[in-house]
Amino acid sequence: MALLEVIGLRTEIRLKRSVVHALDGINLSVDAGETLGIVGESGCGKTMTAMSIMQLLPNGGTVVGGQIRLDGRDLLSLSPEEMDSVRGNDIGMIFQDPTTSLNPTMTIGRQISESVRIHRGASKKEAHERAVEALSLVGMPSPKQRALVYPHELSGGMRQRAMIAMALANEPKLLIADEPTTALDVTIQKQILELIDNLKQQLGMAVILVTHDLGVIAGRADKIAVMYAGKVVETTSTRALFANPRHPYTEALFASLPERSAESGERLYSIPGLPPDLTKPPAGCRFAARCRYATDECRTSEPPLAGTVEEHRFACFLPVGEPVYRTEAAPVAATAVATERVRVSRDSTLTEPLLRIEGLVKDYPVTAGLVLRRNVGSVSAVADVSLTVHQGETVGLVGESGCGKTTVGKLIVGLEKPTGGSLLFQDRDLAQAPRAERRHLRRDVQLMFQDSYAAMNPRMMVRSVMREPLDIHRVDSPAERDRRIREIFDLVGLPLSALDRYPHEFSGGQRQRVGLARALALRPKLIVADEPVSALDVSIQSQVLNLMRDLQGELGLSYLFISHDLSVIRYLSDRIGVMYLGKLVEIGPAESVYANPVHHYTRGLLDTIPVADPAVEAAKSSQGIAGELPSAIDPPSGCRFRTRCPAAQEICARVEPKLAPYGPDNHLAACHLPLRPAAAAAQEVAPALV
Amino acid sequence: MTAYLFRRLLQSVVTVFIVTIVSFGLMKLMPGGPVRAILGTHATPANIAHLTQQMGLDRPLYVQYWTWLDGLLHGNLGFDYIVQRPISDLLFNALGASAYIVGASLLLALLIAIPMGMIQATRRNSVLDHAFTVFSFVAYGIPTFFIGFLIQQWFEDDLQWVSVQNQVSTFGAALTHPEAVCLPVLTLTITTVAGYSRYMRSGVLDQITQEYVRTAKAKGASMRRTMYAHVLRNALIPMVTLIGLSLPILVGGSLIVEFVFNIQGIGLLTTRAALQNDYGITLAATLLTAVVTVIGSLVADVSYAVLDPRVRLT
Questions:
Q1: Of the residues B65, B88, B111, which one is the last residue of a structural domain?
Q2: Which of A231, A568, B19, B42 gives a 20 to 30 Å CA spacing to A260?
Q3: Contacts with A105 from chain B: Cβ below 8 Å
């Protein structure tokens, strides 16, 4: 018998006038020592499943049917007090955002020991000792001291470790991890996922890993349940799912991943339409309305979760893939990875440079003092970055949070003033130009935000949001402005009726279209896109990426694409720049940087990023990037990466490496001990090529 | 923290110093002048000249200011020629009675409003929540003097539970004659609870939707434990500012309650002084309010930092 068995689970959320049928007949099982991955897009019910097991449903939510058996005991039959003794004792849970999930006014140690005191009736002292033990178990450095600090004094990764310590303090049989690394950096993500894996083995727990990230699930789960609109649509072992997906939804999810099309540069597949409204779930297959294979049968009767083999079950009348249980990918798919990049690599370095950044520096002062504030140091956010964006080119900027990539974007659009260096836009200095000209130049450089919703005034109709930049710059006549807005809305594929709606009435993908439309209103030449798709689901992400690429072709736009997600960057960019702690450590053509990285940091980043392919994940060396980003107030001497670099030697601390060419294709990197030898004829690099 | 306190205290001293200059200057701008106020409209020029010289009002302004400030620093607020008593006597007597009433009601109000707000928030939309809400709105909507009259009517005249013989005008008197202060305290408490419980309710409602509350429940903490160990402290943080900012009422007194219950508190004293052009008392009361306001906001900021470890006072 499995440790946890969920049978026919149905959960509803009662709203004022309607009832959301959030979960409808969920069947799951997890054994001890096993990781079950629950994957799906936002709103599919994956978190609701976890919360139903914990019986921590939001207001109005109730489990209306089914069984949740933990060790044979039905959790749904327990009294609230009995359930209290299950939570935190038999089942531990970790949440997405460790910053908001920890009590800000209580020390880490007390928050962990609380759980021990509740369930083991331990004394304060015993509980504290157990908390320190748990902290050392999760790899918290100097756990005794850390137990006494408040959550805000820890880094994000350390907070998540504390969170895990809390969940595991009583050695539960089951750990539920709900998007445990979504709020963390990739390098930290790898460390946390590995920690969960190790602890699972050490403590013999079962783990339910809830995530939207197919890469995370490919590397960590033993078996997977794919959810869609409150139902499990496909469930099998991880390898079988990735090798031979049977449900069209699973297939579509895979097809929208940018890494699957990075080689070919083809348009990404995007799932049309939106998930169904669960207050009135459709009669037949819930995916039918968006499925490219759907027939009338799919729309009228509901397919059961079944399959030709016991190990691989799916709910579809017209399954894709092969009717066998296969855990190896078809040979065709395997070779596809090795094929040449079909996409015509535009050598944009030949066209005119649009934006030239030379020796850009940004320091933020740090002040202290009793009465008079004096500067005691500075945060070196951007340190001597040189970069060129050519006409019609996409330059991707990648790095961990705190590496300075967003600051570079802010400096370019003029939201911050540089401390040093120059920003030349079409050979005019953006910072030095006279006021009137600067204003005019600003039109040509626009910003696209990560969270378009937060970036729009919620009390303004989209029409006014769109009009604002045009009004500020007094572009043409008012009638002409309206005409232009309609034209742009057409271009980004939004209906004109959307103009008279408020930002909250849009879905995530539509909002991002509005964000792009707003950026396009002034007909800019360059768009700085700061993490434009990182808040979106993969199927929506692919729509926005396709749109951005189409518009580039049509309007001859240039993009500076800032993201922490290497696969998205790789898909869209012609060239990739890698930043670390304010420095540009490597830059070159996308494929060259991806396939033949020179800098150890780039190599490490590539290793840490989870790939949606279990075979690749298994073959990966366990090396990632150790440790955490050092403080930018007093950055390491010489090479800033040396404190985390596996190859660092004494020279790295003494001499700061300069960007040098590797290969003929303007692939530059700043490393004393590069992963491959420098170009034979190491000449001076012309600034224009940087 | 020490550095912060040092800087804030220094700032406070500067603020109070500026207040002395401004309020002193404003008094000088008032029409009539103190001598006329004391001697009345029928005074002879000789009398006026004599008193002006006696009070030192013929000297240059900066000398007058300096003399006043010097006296102030030595605890001498000056002499009130209208009532013919030292100003400090008048002020501190009245202050005692007011501070007792306002302080006691503030304390009571907190003791009632905090649990009341918590109960309302945890049982949102229950009958109890609605009942408390109705109470709050009604108590907040009725003018204080009317509540005062109602209470007086009810407890003194109809039920005859309380009979007030003595008029309370000092702190000591307030302590020894609880029957004289209980009704004004009750009146003020009702209005204060009405406001504070609303703040507490929304504060708790803000907190219980936070994710750390879900974490606490996921640990197996009971509802009770979650509320007291996690939510309460976080919900109290915004209350602290409110309490700090209401400290000045302690010395400003509640004119209306003092009027209704005939308590010789600071509210009545300053009102009378203002109406009679009694410069000395008006000036002293203004200054006192300024000092307490500054202290109140300092206390609020410091307790903020004590309650919330994220706030670092630097």
A1: B88
A2: A231
A3: 233-234, 237, 307-310
